[in-house]
Amino acid sequence: MISLQFLLTAFVVVIAPGTGVIYTLALGLGRGRRASLWAALGCTLGIVPHLLAATLGLAAVLHASALLFNIVKFAGVAYLLYLAWTALKSGGALRVEPSTSAEPGLAIARRGALINILNPKLSIFFLSLLTPFLSGNPATVTEETLLLGSVFMAMTFAVFVLYGLFAAQARNWILGSARTMAWLNRSFAAIFAILAGRLALERA
Prior knowledge:
The protein is mainly alpha-helical.
């Protein structure tokens, strides 16, 4: 069940730059190591509802209902656009700048969790990722799904922490360049706007 093939597949998925990775990098660059760790934790916890939905069969219900799917989807689109705006706004949560006020870790984690919670495609993604590695025994499918999902989450957290620590270290190198910080802020805003557009085009 927890085979080398599963671990390699999960690692490739986790390490690929996605919305959570971008968020963690932005927090590491903008607010430092502590913030990046909270971001990694939040993004990881945002997986839990989708894992439970996949395990309990709720994913099929979500994707069978176009209305429910679109409600979650467009809430996610609006949220990503909001994050894009915070990268441009002075003092914004995702803005990279030399002087930033301390922010509660739970607030950082909550934003990271919402990024994943408001992506309705993740529940189906978990079904497609985990199903091939199940034993096929109906009596243990729930336990196996939760176990594989937990391994995936642990791997997600570990990789995101590494991304965040790298970004936090790089923060010390870029603070002296106003041009670099401005470029990063525009880049993060553009990336989140593009991700919002991509999510808006998703279909159930």
